[in-house]
Amino acid sequence: MEAQLTALEPDTPFSFSCRPEVSCFTECCRNLNQFLTPYDLIRLKTRMGVTSREFLDKYTIVFIGPETGLPVAVLEPVGSDSRCPFVSSEGCAVYSDRPASCRTYPLVRLLSRNKDTGALSERYFIHRESHCRGFDTQTQQTLDTWVKDQELAVYNEMNDPLMDIIALKNRYYKGPLNTSIKDLFKLCCYDIDTFRERLFQKSGDKFIESVAPELAEQAEHDDIALLKIGFERVKTALLEHRRES
Question: What's the Cα-to-Cα distance from 213 to each of 5, 108, 193, 219, 222, rounded to whole Å?
Fold first, then answer.
């Protein structure tokens, strides 16, 4: 039986639970292909008490996404079963800081932007896979309760700006991006501690001069504020490169 996607309304109940008593517990943490968003990486590197560069070097593989043409960081699997580096027999060792896709499963969130108004809209689907026994439980919830229980709102808020970056790239660049922009995206969105060092150097990135003073001050010690600046830095670079082409 192939995986099925079924549209889900906010108040429609569905049965699902992932806990040690479920026979396939942690199986989805093996044969891993775990994409990380920039916000995922901030949460995880903070949890591990390391810099973004140390986290990238120790736990991830970075490659160019075939669909977006932008750098993508994925967790580097370990062991013969290609498991997540943070999974154990007891479950996820970083559960409260687990990536957005882990939180969202078994749901899939699709985001679209209205071409006329620019407003974002979201739709959720149930991703039902035959190997997952979580659907066999009697634990029921709705979309609204799932989003709340999994603390998805902050992840969605921090991940949605990526859509604008991808849209800009797809709108203006049909071929590969040049190396400088790919490196800039990796720096601003993933290697955020190095980005902070360069941004606030006296001879560093002049982009900081265009940032609101209160946001710039906050970004000197706050990764969330810094990531917001990083997103804008990448979008600006994409638009500038388009004008120069």
Answer: 45, 37, 19, 10, 14
